[in-house]
Each structure stands twice: as C-alpha cells, then as structure tokens.
Amino acid sequence: MNFLFHHKTKKVLNFVWGIVAVLIIVSMVLFFAPGLVELFI
C-alpha cells in the first residue's frame, strides 16, 4: 500500500477524483433540470 503515498500517484488520484466529481455534478444537473438539455440542443 506504499504506492498510494507516492507523489505521482497522489497527482493521478487527484486528477481522477476531479473528473469523477465533474461527472457527478454534470449528471446531477441534467437529472434535476431536464429542461436545461433542450436549451443546449
């Protein structure tokens, strides 16, 4: 489990976690505001 505390691994985990957070936010916005989708199309 030592690789989890490696500097490069920390950067990658932060990057992946950022992408996951953005995907969750976007999906929640689209789920709770279905009318927004029609504005962009």
Overall description:
The protein is mainly alpha-helical. The chain has one domain (2-40). It has two helices and no strands. The protein starts with 6 loop residues before the first helix and ends with a helix. The model has no long low-confidence stretch (mean pLDDT 79).
Keywords summarizing the entry:
mainly alpha; 2 helices; rod-shaped
How would you summarize this macromolecular structure in one to three sentences?
The protein has 41 residues and is mainly alpha-helical. It contains two helices and no strands.
Q: Tell me the number of structural domains.
A: 1
Number of helices in the DSSP assignment: 2
Write the H/E string, N to C: HH
Segments where pLDDT lies below 50 for 5+ residues? none
Q: Helices, strands, pairings?
A:
Layout: H1 7-32, H2 34-40
